[in-house]
Design goal:
about 290 residues, alpha/beta, Rossmann fold, Glutamyl-tRNA Synthetase, domain 3, 2 domains, five-stranded parallel beta sheet, three-stranded antiparallel beta sheet, 10 strands, about 15% strand, binds glutamic acid, metal-binding, EC 6.1.1.17, aminoacyl-trna synthetase
């Protein structure tokens, strides 16, 4: 067995805003299996910075489901809400580099801008998740400072174009492991994401910022998660390079789809592990259903 510090580190990082479903089971089981095979560690991280959606009771239910699946993760688990200072420090660093600006654009204003452009027959650029890119509106530093001082809600965004001038060429790709564990360099096009949010109006850090800070803080060497997050990795590589953090290796696994062909959602109770368990399913049944028995 290698030294603790040399051992690969895997993590499963659920958000406690609902019960785990079959897709989460696949992620958690793959992390557990890959960690075992590699003689590595398996960590669980609770991504609970979204105060409007995260609930402690869901955290307890998630841990109970993972125990029921007989997954061997280390305790205590890391909770993002206990590490807000770490995200603030990363944000301060990016701010000191001149890469962060406040954005006051509201959802309603965005909707109106997109609708107006589309009425004129223009196509509004969208990010890889399909969300319209939010433009940087011209504003003097004084105006921004006055609006912030007046308490106007705002997000903090990364100046992506400027950020891309500061990082070396290797941040434009990441190592993706295939099913056999062989690495392939995947090219990145982070500019497609536009000026991503780093801190939200209602949360002190965005998913992108927190995940990058946490993976480094926890010494994560392997990020195993669903294919729906594969393009987010392009943003994560940029942030890792700007912040001088090591880049883990990635494996983005297939998604479990519902009968309607869409990816599963926490809001549909029928495929939650809890509902399946209450209906008499065993952990072996779950593994069989998702093709990992
Ligand atoms: N918290 C994210 C989710 O539940 C996963 C983040 C990650 O694995 O990077 O979708």
């Amino acid at each position: 067995m290698p030294n603790a510090s040399d051992r690969p580190v895997f993590r499963f990082a659920p958000s406690p805003n609902g019960d785990l479903h079959l897709g989460h089971a696949l992620s958690a089981i793959l992390n557990d299996e890959m960690a075992r095979t590699a003689g590595g560690r398996f960590l669980v991280r609770i991504e609970d910075i979204d105060g409007s959606r995260a609930r402690p009771e869901f955290e307890a239910r998630i841990l109970e489901d993972l125990d029921w699946l007989e997954l061997d993760f280390e305790r205590p688990v890391r909770r993002q809400s206990e590490h807000l200072d770490d995200y603030r420090a990363a944000l301060d660093r990016l701010e000191a580099m001149g890469l962060v600006y406040p954005s006051f654009v509201t959802r309603a204003e965005m909707k109106a801008m997109v609708a107006e452009a589309e009425e004129r027959g223009q196509t509004w650029l969208r990010d890889p998740d399909g969300a319209p890119l939010v433009p940087r509106l011209l504003m003097s530093e004084e105006e921004a400072a006055t609006r912030i001082a007046a308490g106007e809600p705002h997000a903090l965004r990364l100046d992506m174009d400027e950020a891309l001038t500061r990082i070396p060429a290797q941040a434009r790709s990441f190592a993706e492991l295939d099913e056999g564990g062989n690495p392939h360099e995947k090219p990145c096009h982070p500019a497609d994401w536009g000026d991503v949010v780093l801190a939200r109006k209602d949360a002190p850090a965005s998913y992108h910022l927190a995940v990058v800070v946490d993976d480094a803080a926890q010494g994560v060497t392997h990020v195993v998660r669903g294919l729906d997050l594969k393009r987010s990795t392009e943003v994560h590589r940029v942030l890792q390079d700007l912040l001088g953090l090591p880049a883990p290796r990635y494996h983005h696994h297939r998604l479990i789809l519902g009968p309607d062909g869409r990816k599963l959602s926490k809001s549909e109770a029928s495929t939650s592990l809890r509902a399946l368990r209450e209906g008499g399913a065993t952990p072996a049944d779950i593994r069989r259903t998702i093709g990992v028995d």
